[in-house]
Amino acid sequence: MSAAAPVVELKQITKRFPGIVANDSISLTLEKGEIHALLGENGAGKSTLMNIVFGLYQPDEGSIEIGGKPVIIDSPNKAIELGIGMVHQHFKLVDPFTVTENIILGTEPKKGLKIDYKSAAEQVRKLSELYGLQVDPHARIHDISVGMQQRVEIMKTLYRGADILIFDEPTAVLTPQEINELMAIMKRLVAEGKSIILITHKLKEIMTIADRVTIIRRGKVIDTVRTSETNPNDLAEKMVGRGVTFKVDKQPPNIGKAVLKLDGVNSKNKEGISVLNNLSFEVKAGEILGIAGVDGNGQSELIQAITGLRKIDSGSITMEGKEIANLSPRKITEKNVSHIPEDRHKHGLVLDFTVSENMVLETYYRSPYNRNGFMNKDIIDKHAEKLIREFDVRTPSIHTSARSLSGGNQQKAIIAREIEKNPSLLIAAQPTRGLDVGAIEFVQKQLIAQRDQGKAVLLVSFELDEIMNVSDRIAVIYEGHIVGEVYPENTNDQELGLMMAGSLKQGGNSGV
Amino acid sequence: MFKLKKIFATDSYIVPVVAILLGLLVGAAVMLIGGYDPVASYRALFNRVFGSPYDFGEAIREMTPLMLTGLSVAFAFRSGMFNIGADGQVLIGMTAASVIGIKLAGVPTFLLVPLAVIGAGLFGGLWAGIAGYLKAKRGINEVITTIMLNWVALYLANYIVRTFLLIPGQNRSEDIPASMSLTFLNSVFDNARLHWGTVIALAAAVFFYVYLWKTKQGFEMRAVGLNPHAAEYAGMNVGRNIIKSMFIAGVFAGLAGAGEVLGVFHYQSVFAGSPGYGFDGIAVALLGITHPFGVILAAILYGMLTYGSAGMSFDANVPPELIRIVIGSIIFFIAAQGIVRWVLKPFYFKRKKEKVL
Description:
Chain B: InterPro entries: ABC_transp_permease (IPR001851). Chain B: This is Simple sugar transport system permease protein. Chain B: It is found in: Cell membrane. The complex is a heterodimer. Chain A is built from 17 helices and 24 strands. Chain A is α/β, with parallel strands linked by helices. The radius of gyration of chain A is 25 Å and the shape is globular. The model of chain A is unreliable at 508-512 (pLDDT under 50). By secondary structure, chain B is mainly alpha-helical. Chain B has helices spanning 2-8, 14-33, 38-50, 53-78, 86-103, 109-138, 142-165, 197-214, 216-226, 228-233, 238-265, 277-287, 292-315, 322-335, 337-355. Chain B is globular and about 55 Å long. The two termini of chain B are 29 Å apart. The A-B interface holds A 17-20, 22, 307, 309, 328-330, 333, 339, 341, 346-353, 357, 361-362, 364-365, 370, 373-375 and B 214-220, 222-223, 226-227, 229-237, 353-354, 356-357.
């Protein structure tokens, strides 16, 4: 980079919390016009470090220099003053407000006593053009897509004059297309002289977009490398401290009889629009069927239909030969169906219940957990103790609320609960979303272990890599219809991509 | 609504305790501004409650319906609903108890009283169940339906009393032969109107606790209250739980009604307007952080303040309405937890620091 002083320099930052050193003498430099990735597992200390830079925490030791001058950042306002902007993972937007209103919130331009919306909107439009953001200044937040909302967050920092942008896990909520667009925006930002710190645990993104990457493990800097001089395996190993296999190890499948069979399933949503459209496929014992598709093509509705959360209008869904369409979720669970839901906070867990209570969320009414109408606490607790041990769920205690667990451990808890029911069919919807490499490996291994035990596994994922690596067979869904089935060994990303986009009807090799 | 639930369902007793102290301070400040002596006022309040066995008994009488309506609101709250309709449920309970008590007067007392009490609970429960049903099956917000049902209950109760139970020329029903009075305590409490309703209220709190935290059905109800989506995913029948929880909430309120007509007045009046038991119940439930034992303590405090306020006006010449300012401030401070936390900050700082990670 340039010989000038780095835009941000962190020197030997140490931050301690009782019982833990979150940041242990971390040093990091951000050059002008650079995208610098901060890589680490959940809980490695990335967020703490960025909260220090953004003024939410004070370091116990060490110093921060901005443009070569030592500074003390004691509040987010100070950070903004110094040209630091943060794009949070969870957006901080007012839904019913317009884009412009959200952007100027707190720094409204005034004309007399009134807010000068006209000039504000004009300024927003100019910024949008400059960085290729294509945001409509007058759209309301609840009417625009998640990707657009994120751009509004970016504009908020730009509007406040940020030169240093911190992106906290920006792609966690985005679709593959939106991710590509975000990458382009980030490139545009650095081309215009901004500098970016990117917090993530997605190696692919780092390799595509970052110039340099600093790997943090347990609060310590392991290494800082140029992406041009490293590879994903190397980065993953540094991040988790051991070798990680991306190619999932698995034996050829031992396929048995069909377990789940969908035939001509149709379902409409409340607006009368068809969301499942003459949809048919089957999952056999001992195989993993991957459902590939772009978000919003009926994946959620498909799973809801199978699990009894959505009524279907016509067609049949059978489980081991028995019709289960339009039965209640309880009745379907009792037909040996387990379900790792897409949204673990909304469906998977009662966050304010304890870990122990969540472990019996679906089986609480059965003996021995339920004894004559009373909950058998000792047995429920023992059951939870056993599960957290077997599945390595890290929690201070089984009586801790599920809310206080990390995302990876919440997911482990759900997987433990669902697998322990010994299902014939395991439905896994986006099982690795938002998890770090170590946890992803764990989840995928569990799915394969289930398949090796002769269970039928239905995997729905937006991550093409996951579909390709884990599935034995792939069905592509487009506009609520299975447009083709392929085997992963006989296809490639291009072919799948075309099928997902609806422009190729059937793969080169039909699965059924 | 969800946020409201979070504020009032936190299991922390420190905030209410500090809120009570702050509320008393605000009351004192208002008295000072008005030229009254707060120390004398609070002393008068205290003396009124504890000054004589009769007054003490009457204070308990005052607390009893508050306990039950408080439990009613709190129970619904725990399963995710805001029961504004305890008032109407009390009235329906009263009316059921009066009708049974008067019209079945031939039945022996040892059967008649339980029958009237059960009838009051049952009809109170069914009345609340209407709102539960509409919410579960039609998605109608229970806040709106319970408020509307309050008015329906008021005029229905008055209609029944006027048409079937009235003493001609008076605005009240005949005397009810069935009585819940604790007559054997008359000598101890100097004929204060104590009745079995107090015992029922305490038993109801125990039932509340055991049912919600120890039983299978309670597990479902709490899950539905905390996360209906996850409850549905886990195979629970969300609608049925909503109806059931409203029914039980209504039973509590209905029992409060039975205590008032069978234990205190021994007749039922034609009400000009809402008697207000249910609305005090909301305050009590919030003050008691919607925990059954908290509700009992809150009802005791609320009852003491209300009953003692008469003493304030008598002995210290302070208008009894002032006590409403105290109660209002207490609830304000519980809702505005931020203020309480801010007050507590110097004491808390050390402990909080350890909690950060």
